[in-house]
Amino acid sequence: MKKFAVFGLGNFGAFVARALYEEGHEVLCVDRNEDRVNRMREYSTYAIIGDATDKELMESAGVADMDGVIISLGNDLSASVLATLYLKDLKVENILVKIRSEDQGRILQKIGASEVIFPEKETAFKIARALSNPNVLDYIPLSEDYSIQEVAPPSEFIGKTLGELNLRAKYGVNVIAVRELVPERITMVPDASFMIKDSDILVVLGRTSDIEKLSPAKE
Fold first, then answer.
1. 3-class state of residue 158 by DSSP
2. For the segment 70-117, what is each residue's pLDDT rounded down to a tens digit?
3. Domain 3-119 falls in which CATH fold?
4. Cβ contact 80:86 at 8 Å
5. 3-state secondary structure of 2
6. Is the dihedral of CA 93, 74, 6, 23 positive or negative?
7. Where are any strands of DSSP class E within 80-135?
8. Residue ranges per structural domain of the chain
9. What are phi and psi of 82, to 5 degrees?
10. In terms of Cα–Cα distance, which of 51, 49, 57, 70 is closest to 5?
């Protein structure tokens, strides 16, 4: 079990806090809005009314001992900056800040944010990929060129083994896992004899441009 703090309980902050709590972690929730705090009491270890720019509150709440702190303060850039600076003063190493623009992200990273999160951009990118590549179910960028993607196998893959498909030689990609839906299980690093079913999802690692070649040809 790890310990996290979430400052700001709008939609994003509340979802993150609840997800962490349901994963079994200790979660401290902080917001100036009493209604938001009350709504999170059953989905957090501690939920308190407070200001993210109150350094004394941070100290008394023990954020210095947290495994990570998430700042989600909407459009209030000055509050996000102050909160990040105070967390750095308290030697918090893992600071994640929700941003509204890339300019905000550059500012916050310069003053010490470990990671900036731009949900609108990430969601838009995933939607665009899903619409242009319908067989791509999920996408995790690793670098500018490489990614891990969940891919629904094209019809011509069904009934063939990974050895027969030889995806590494033909496409330059590696199948690192198969998520089987029937029966529900995950096979890590499947061997060449693994036969693809129409209910399987391939977890593929490689150049993004090479993975896209797995998509059915567009007419």
1. coil
2. 999 988 899 999 999 999 999 999 999 999 888 888 999 999 999 998
3. Rossmann fold (3.40.50)
4. no
5. coil
6. negative
7. 95-98, 115-117
8. 3-119, 130-214
9. -60, -45
10. 70
